[in-house]
Amino acid sequence: MQILQVLLVEDDRSAALDVEMLLDEMGLKLASLKDNAVDALQYIYDEQPDLIILDLELKGDKSGLDIANEINHLRIPIIFTTSFKDKTTFEQTKSTYSFGYLVKPFNKLSLQSTIEQAVKVLFPEDELEGPGENELTIMPDMVLVKHVNMLYPVRYDNILFIQGEGNYCSIHTIQRKYLLKAPLKKMLEAMPPSEFAPIHKSFIVRLDKVESIDVGSGKLVVGKETLPLGRNFKNSFLSRFNQLK
Predict the structure, then answer these.
(1) Which pLDDT value is given to residue 159?
(2) Which of 80, 167, 210, 238 has the highest Cβ tally under 10 A?
């Protein structure tokens, strides 16, 4: 199984320990544990975990479902956990980026099979692994993506944004997505700095494709996607548009 950055949001310490032990048996480690919505949301926006295991019944003003709805635009796979067999809530989770709904207490097999479904989305084997792995060639006005024996020219002016996923990244264009074995740092170094800028540790955008910027909530729209604007990137990014901070 891939090395994942897993966030657990759980306010029951006993239940949290159970999940942590199950993950440990699977060879996975928690990146972080949060017991409330405020800290969880802050961590999610700052760190962009690969996967979130989210308790639906959190104490406080916001439930797990509230968190999931708020971060839906980030497209981070979520596995919901709950102590109740509530059909209404289950139906509501379907509108989120949910990959599972586990009723406590659940076992290792249930958790592992659900996580593996999310891994298939995060790291599609047919495009990212093995002899057919994509290769990248940088050119003055485009990148060439090679997959098996096919070459795909991707012009810079056709790129919307680039998303980093560990040692891999995905180039998002209007037409499709290209997955590559290349860290986001390498892509940033290769892209023309006058045309591209980082907005988050996991995202680079093409400046002329940005349609709107919500400075207050730290989000921006590129094409049909809403992306996070990280706190550490906000000032330098806005300066590219000569905006007042």
Answers:
(1) 93
(2) 80
Backbone angles phi, psi at 139, to 5 degrees: -130, 170
| CA–CA separation, 125 and 186 (whole Å) | 22
CA 195/CA 206 separation, integer angstroms: 6
Q: What pTM, to 2 d.p., does this model score?
A: 0.54
Token pair in block for residue 222: 């590129």
The pair phi, psi for residue 225, each rounded to 5°, is -105, 140
- For the chain, give every residue range classified as CATH 3.40.50.2300: 6-122
Return the closest-CA partner of residue 140 out of 215, 202, 105, 192. 192
Q: Would you say residue 65 has pLDDT above 90?
A: yes
pLDDT category, 215, cuts 50, 70, 90?
Answer: confident
Beta-strand pair 219-222/30-34: unpaired
Q: Which letter, b or e, does each residue of 23-36 get, where b requires 16 or more Cβ atoms within 10 Å of its Cβ? A: beeeebebeebbbe
Domain with CATH 2.40.50.1020 in the chain: 128-239
* Helix, strand, or coil (residue 148): coil
Q: Measuring CA to CA, which residue among 133, 194, 188 is closest to residue 161?
A: 188
CATH top class, domain 6-122: alpha beta
Greatest extent of the chain over all pairs of C-alpha atoms, in Å: 57
- Identify the band that residue 245 occupies on the pLDDT scale cut at 50, 70 and 90: very low
| CATH 2.40.50.1020 given to domain 128-239 | yes
* pLDDT digits 0-9 by tens, 102-157: 999 898 888 988 887 777 666 554 443 333 445 667 777 787 776 655 667 888 98
